[in-house]
Fold this protein.
Amino acid sequence: MMKKNLKYLLALLCIIVLLLCTGCSSNNAAPQPISITVWTYYNGTLLESFNTLVKTFNETVGKEKGIIVEAYSQGSVNELEASVMQSAEGKVGAAAMPNIFSAYADTAYALDKLGLVVDVSSYLTADERAAYVDNYLTEGDFGQTGSIKIFPVAKSTELLFLNETDWQPFAEATGTQESEMLTIEGLLAVAERYYNWTDAQTATPDDGKALFGRDAMANYLLIGAQELGCTIFEVDGDGRLTLHFDRDIIRKLWDSYYVPFIKGYFSAAGRFRSDDIKTGNLLCYVGSSSSGTFFPSRVITSDTESHDITLKVLPCPKFADGESFAVQQGAGMVVTAADEAKVRASVEFLKWFTLPENDISFSVGSGYMPVTKAANNMNTIKAAGLTLSPVVEQVLTERLGDVGKKLHTARSRNDQVALDTRLYLRDEIVEIIDGIRNLQRALLGQAETNKRTILPGFTHLQHAQPVLFAHHLLAYVEQFERDIGRLTDCRTRLNVMPLGSGALAGSTLPIDREFVRKALDFPTCTRNSMDSVADRDFACELLAALAIFSMHISRLSEDIILWMSQEFRFVELSDAFCTGSSLMPQKKNPDIAEISRGKTGRMYGNLTAMLTICKGLPMTYNRDLQEDKEPLFDSIDTAKGILSVYPAMIATMKTRPERMLEAASDPGLMATDLAEALVRKGVPFRHAHHKVGALVRYCAEHGKEMNALSVEEMKSVIPEADESMLELFSPVSAVTLRKSYGGTGYEQVASQLAFWKEKLGE
């Protein structure tokens, strides 16, 4: 009895301890972090600046407060707006609505009408609100006094950017003052004067140069009309549009831009007017204040001639008799409707992002203007230890004095560009290889899950032999491994340091290329200065490797598209990677696979373009080589874009093993097994092949499947047949018997899986 009571007491004690421990555990458990998603249209240095701050937040304040920010670029403003609207409208295949997204007023207004935009004004104290530039907050008011539905993070306005170096000879010769360009009328007069002055420099008549261009014509029309007293359009609180056209004002706007454009005084040749400055086609332009980061430090007038220039920034010209207005540009951030915790976390991140020190950091990195009053103070900027100068040489000179002016010593554009391209590509290749590894891991995961799943293998898209689905997927793992090998080899060959080669012949100065090589982490220097600046083999090789990779992606996509069709019904893709038909509600289209397949032509085209650029070029550097960037950048972006979504699509793909096995149970798939059984009986394979072919014809003529034949019927065509051959018409048996190295048998596939698990660290 004593032992029994003791047992009860021990049991009770254990229960009490367990309950106490459970209570302690629950009370001390850390709360689950709140994850918020941010969608932007940022790219390049702008995206890098944004992501750097996001990373800092996650590692500091976010970690402390249990907030994780996941930021994703949607590619462009148009792509971002399209993605947001698809999410808002619940389109099939659309991603979940982000917690924060970059938005201009029109998109934010459309989302607000759907009840999806949060007014964040209540989340800011009066002091916090007062910290921002007042006019930046009113953009997101939407007629509701005091509301904030667009959180300011990036703002810009228009300025006049002038090539002051090339302006000086014109100004000295003609007595023209920069101040004349503070008005539209004055700018037009100066542009005509500049055209005539440059025209007089040559014997050819009417070949004067344009002075001026604009990046955004819409701003000129809207702001110009407003300066002259006419608002071209108004939108009321209900979203109704009212247009106003004043004939005289419209005529003045026309005469003040399009007429001088026709006469050649104004121009617009490149994608942006900063491009026109670079080639000497313009002396000045009006553009976003953020475009100052793209203003060139040199003008390249020919293959052999170039010179340094300096930038001067002037106010945006206005009509002389008009009222002054400034355009407000730049997308803010919209917080979307969600549970209270996510909304608070979203606002917490945006407030941190726009703290003066972070506001300045983002502005310097992106070229946008700060959005807080403190960050617009030069003393605050200097205290942050940052400079607004976009030119590296200027920055070095500011910090080091005249030593900074030695930056260009013994360097040419030719070897500098060759260096920069190699530095860029070697990092991008590593990123692409990492992406391919992720894809391999996704394929390996599906192979492991489906290591006993059987489906028909195909040749000529006809049923051939049963194979394991894992075997099929691992075939692509092998192909992608060869892609990695080609990319790795390419990186090895491009990873040599060309700097110090000069224009083509090296330098007379006592430079130390070996020191620079070590500083830039190159394993070796280029041996021949002429080849250093002429070589673009590495670009051709990379584009070839990416084209082959894209071909493999295309083949995998084709398989997936077929497997997903109603005729096959082998797999099903997640809705996140598909869309429905705009007309037929029953359809589910494998969009990502189709788009990836379509990108292959683009990759092939870039390779062909690069090879054509390099064809027939004489030694050494030729201006043709500047055209290598577009195909390189495009192929890299395309490959990275595919690899950003493909692994997740593969990992979430669902298989239908029963349907696959059903398709693999066609007795015709085992015809080769029957022939090999005859070989094991001593029949030469050629004879065995003919005998099985005769049996196939017999079945066709008699309307029977091979596995439905009796032994006697089989013997009538193949005398060597016996009952054991009836057991061959099983896909499981067919797979089991294939034990040759590299085959589809269970043992061989298990060996392949083990190999790739070890190699990929799974």
